[in-house]
User: Fold this.
Amino acid sequence: MEKLSHATENILDENVEKLAELFPEVVTEVREPDGTLRHTIDVEALKARVGDVAEGQRERYQFTWPGKRDAKQEAYRPIDKCLRPCPEESVDWDTTGNLYIEGDNLDALKLLRNTYAGKIKMIYIDPPYNTGHDFIYDDDFAVSSKTFADSNAAFDDAGNVLDAAYRENRESAGRFHSDWCSMMYPRLLLARDMLASNGVMFMSIDDYEQENLRKLCDEVFGAGNFIAQLVWERAYAPKNDAKYVSNSHDYVLMYARNADCFHIGKLPRTAQANAMYKNPDNDPRGLWRPDNLSVKTYSAANDYPITTPSGRVVEPPAGRCWRLSKNAFFERLHDNRIWFGKNGDAVPSLKRFMSELRSDGMTPTSILFYKEVGHSQEGAKELVKLFDGKGYFDGPKPTRLLERLIRLANLYDDSLVLDFFSGSATTAHAVMHMNAESGKHARFILCQLPEPTDEKREAFKDGYKNICEIGKERIRRAGKKIAEEVKESNCQLKLGEEPKKVPDIGFRVLKIDSSNFEDVAAEPAAYSQQMLAGLADNLKPGRTAEDILFQVLPQFQIPLSAHIERQRINGSTVFSVDGGRLVACFDRNVPTETIVAMAKMEPDYAVMRDASFSGDDAVSNFGELFKTYSPATITRVV
Assistant:
């Protein structure tokens, strides 16, 4: 009986398999020190297959920093951790499709990857800006001052003191750029895997690291998948105490998984845009606006004189030509689509009719004005209003900004939105509000490190011991407020108007922890007889059947929000997950009658644990019973 691994998938093995699909001849076998064989890549064969390669001391264009190699390896390193369910901190646990994951987001991305790779429509992150006092994720591969000094003689460690959570950065010290890049790089590599082929990722950033983030993303996503560098007007008033220039903006970088597959969402038409359309000649086709008939891309065939109704001869401007060929011009002229002005002697223009617009929306621009998407103080005021006059959080993004990005992402009805630097949970608030307004059923996955709150600040004194506590409470309060607004709106409906539906305002809380099982992979000499006896059942103390269930769900690619039905069968607890796709039982000494009942459910997958059986024969019996009653079921033991 095949046993499930406790660790996350080995991404490097997946990459070998992908290369094998393209070039089978480059895959070979090597023997490990323990005598086992594994597949790997024959580099010489790969070179022969792809031709010219850049290697060794050969000059090439690249973006690098001390610690980059270790950061990339960290993205691919499996981890032996799990997600533990916390129904008591959740809202609508049994019915919600939303997730809130508490823990390091690098671990979260690895744990989510097997289930959600290629399924996320939109990712938004607001990472630490590295301004000198920001929280920096203290990854094991962050470069030390000595390592940096050995790699870069320009580094001057003039008494800077660092601790595990906060680092006093000097803007001139490259080491901190390196630490920041090493923190971001593996997370971006994993984030790209999460995106659907038509998915898009948005990243808020300021001037200090935007250049490095752009280079990172060009490498991870490919420069051809860059969509835009949006400029958000985050401040509405200048700071008179600025040393040089009052900085009023931040950036939002926008990259697609595959730019050829991504279609940007249009913005709603505004009254100002519609006001450009008039009908001075009473055309029966309705409102229209004049469009320039000349273009810069010169073509001699489209360079011809036009005689206006008044008899005036008009040529294209110097260096330009008409956008229409001569024949196409006369076709439009006969169809009353050319406008010569009220007196018939103006330079001709093309009539663009509102009724013939290809879509109802407007093409977005690269500037996000605060009047349209909110400013930083608006984000702060939203939080203050939700928390009864207490803000608790520095610099939360306004909900309107996230709603604009959600519109640009062009979500489908049930799209998934991921935010793995979720902070004050603005993304969750925006998704729920958008669902209420549009009737869609988009879902969110939020990840946040439980960074402790400052004991001197109001949040800590009011009982919020870490940022996650604030984020979860913000979702609870925002969801309640949205539900109340929907109900109030429905009470004021006019005749014939459809009532709105209260969106999914719940979320499941999952917390990252070590594996539910003790590590028994060490050498036998490392264990005493007493220790081995204690590991007969290697489940850690305090871990529950639900904990085990959530550790195995990703291995079957079953969503962590899937419906879970708990049943009692012959005295055993049996879980039926995702409409019966998976059945599981983790009790000790499970009777044969229970296994038969599980098999008769005919699930896609069935899983039990070692301690569920009284011996090796019982394990074999588990597989044989399913072959008898449900031969298509894949059975596993954990």
Notes: Confidence is low (pLDDT under 50) at residues 132-136, 148-173. DSSP finds 19 helices and 24 strands in the chain. The longest strand covers residues 195-205.
